[in-house]
Amino acid sequence: MDESESRSAIKQLASDLLIRHGYRGMGYAEIATQLGITRANIHYHFGSKAELIDEVLADYVAATLDSLRKVWANEGTSLPEKLKQMLVFSRQRYNRFNARGEPIRPWSLISRLRQDQDLLSASGRTLLAKFSTELHDVFAGALSLAAAAGEIRGDVEAATTLLVAIADSAAPITIAEGGFMGLEAAYGALAKLTLK
Prior knowledge:
Helix content is 77%, strand content 0%. By secondary structure, it is mainly alpha-helical. The chain has one domain: Tetracycline Repressor, domain 2.
């Protein structure tokens, strides 16, 4: 494995471990064992655990926002279709960590690290705040366009607030509600309240 492949493999495994076990449950020893490398190799690439987590979180936030912008910035897609695409996006991440018939497990790095915010670096906490702010901006722009097109009723800012709350809490909703149908119900309720 060359240096680039090694960095990528370390970050991917760190992301998976963070999602499954949280900040405290992700350690260099397990990464080294699973990848067949040394802890010194991980330190060489990332330095401290906080630096590794910051980089993993930055990549995850950027990829998530990029995917959501593609859904919500598409002016040729109706609001109901955008809500369906949100569910498809979330279901793909959910299915990666949750097998049928198994207890519901965490599946979002953002949601998981919100639980461990006190352990994150200042940079990590800033990334989580940035995610929510940018998520709000993405949704506000899309819902303003939907309102101008006559697709929604009611207050755009109120609908944006609800949409952000659902999207930002998607993983905890599935855990609290016993599965993905809880998230589907939340988006369905939002659609009933806002769509014409």
